[in-house]
Amino acid sequence: MARIVITETMEERAVARLRRAHEVLHDPQLVDDAPRLLALAAGADALIVRNRTQVRGALLQALVRCRVVGRLGVGMDNIDMPGCQARGIQVFPATGANAQSVAEYVITAALMLLRGAWLHTAAVAGGQWPRQALSQGHEVAGRTLGLVGFGSIGQTTARLARGLDMQVCAFDALMDQDSPAYAQLGVRCAGLEEVITTSDVVSLHVPLMDSTRGLLDAGKIALMKPGAVLINTARGGIVDEQAVAAALKRGHLGGAALDVFEAEPHPPAPHFADCPNLILTPHIAGVTQQSNERVSGLIADRVLAALAALR
Questions:
Q1: Residue 178 neighbours by CB distance under 10 Å
Q2: Is residue 235 flagged as an active site residue?
Q3: Catalytic position from the list 26, 205, 283, 294
Q4: Annotated active-site residue in 67, 143, 205, 235
Q5: Under 8 Å CB-to-CB from 41, ≥6 apart: which residues?
Q6: Which domains does the chain have, with CATH numbers?
Q7: pTM higher than 0.85
Q8: Residue 266: predicted pLDDT
Q9: Beta strands at 253-258 and 278-280: parallel, antiparallel or unpaired
């Protein structure tokens, strides 16, 4: 029987399946208790984390028995992959399991921000009647969605967008230009600058690494179409938050939805004060009841299979 330590939230039915075969400690607060986490890590055969647990440095050094890490999500920037490989630790992400949730978030944000009418409930409840001001929004049909990154989440987003009669173009540095996914989904393969300069909505779906850090800086944002919308559900370090705020305030960007930030949890951000048509959410685009069940179930399956293979 192996020992499994789960440092953040995992769906209880998936945890129960793990408990039927192994000794399991599931504490969603463990990520914030470094001394206890390090002590428990020393006896763990498997570790399951979300995005806040940093599997590197002291924690990686403490994993003297661990041979399996399950990642309840798809981004791997919180895990030292070369370090895990050097120690013989297998890492399993939940690839594809939260794609629908993220894609629905992106489409919802695009609808809200292009229409520009949904964030004024308090004004109407207070007796205002800004009918003329809120009648200048746009339909999404016929608009262009530009995807930076065309993996499972980007492709699911494209499918939903095409169902709303949007035009879709996509750039992915890691995908061949003749990949059948483009034709199958009716998506035009384009260069990064073309996606940024021609799209009415730009949505980011790339991992955070050296080549993507600061990808959407002030210069790139200035290249976006006047009135375009920016949506980031990838990683905060990819976008210059202050540049987004400045572009919203001067009217160059028509709207923005940011679900991820350079620092999480996000500290006070005065630069976002008084930004028009801005949606900020706390890294929840890929987290719904349904996606949590899929992600947790998938990782439970992979961890159980990996531990069984190690016997």
A1: 8
A2: yes
A3: 283
A4: 235
A5: 5, 47, 59, 62, 63, 66
A6: 3-97+289-310 (3.40.50.720), 99-280 (3.40.50.720)
A7: yes
A8: 84
A9: parallel
